[in-house]
Amino acid sequence: MDKKSKIILIAGPTASGKSNFALQLAKKVNGEIINSDSMQIYKEIKILNARPTSKNIKKITHHLYGFHSVKKKFSTGQWLKKTIRLVKEIKKKNKIPILVGGTGLYFKAITSGLTKIPLIPMKYRNKLRAEHKKIGQKKFFNKLVKLDPLAKSRINDNDAQRTLRAYEVKKYTKTSLFKWHENTPKNFEEKDFLKIYVDCPRNDLIYRINKRVDNMIKAGAIKEVKKLRNLNIKKDNSSNKVIGINEIHKFLDGDQNIDVTKEQICIKTRQYAKRQRTWARSQMSNWEKLDYKKLASYSKKIKISSLKLDQ
Length: 311
What we know:
single chain; alpha/beta; Rossmann fold; Histone, subunit A; 2 domains; six-stranded parallel beta sheet; 13 helices; 50% helix; globular
């Protein structure tokens, strides 16, 4: 087993060029790619998720893409278990594991372990979400800081999702979310990783997102959603969070034209990219930031020797 080489992690906002970068790196360092995006797991959703092409998958081995049914739930814990096993298998072949995707929680799990916080009743969580909606993020964040002072320096005051999570955990379990994290066993050490965050300026990203949405529609995204409609997927299933599904449903129902549909998908994608960047600022501050225009030159320059762990 190759215990001497690092595991490469590649994160970044959607449409920033992560997947192609991972492919180029894998060719250069003899690697295999592991999906780290919670939406890429669904086998029935290929176009809207911009899944790597069959051509690219033939060139380099890809794992955990399009293997799970949209009708079934899939947790971060399940992903982590499969990924740890794959990392070990890839290293046994003396190859480099390359994890790439846009799901921050997946990267948090692989680098810091998965915190086993007691299950909080949905009724309790929904009550807090209603309060958050009523008073707004600013006031709710102030409530969190009073409840759990540790949150002040660890959560961006604009990050509603993490604010709610920290509040509900402290309120329900009487223990800070950050204390739960500190007591979580890790599967790997910090030195085991090469962490790369692909950065892309906002205007460039908007252009890339618009272009991607155009290509998705041309590639058959509407037909893809038509097929999904026939599967009778439950509304609360995570697969419905794939951007484009709800917007295309409205188009198919005759509620809006294709131009409005495309614009809505673009807006939703931009909002998602913004949330990814917000997460990165608070959770990936120690990652190596790489401009998306420099990905090709980075791939050419990187050497396998630079991935060796210090003994």
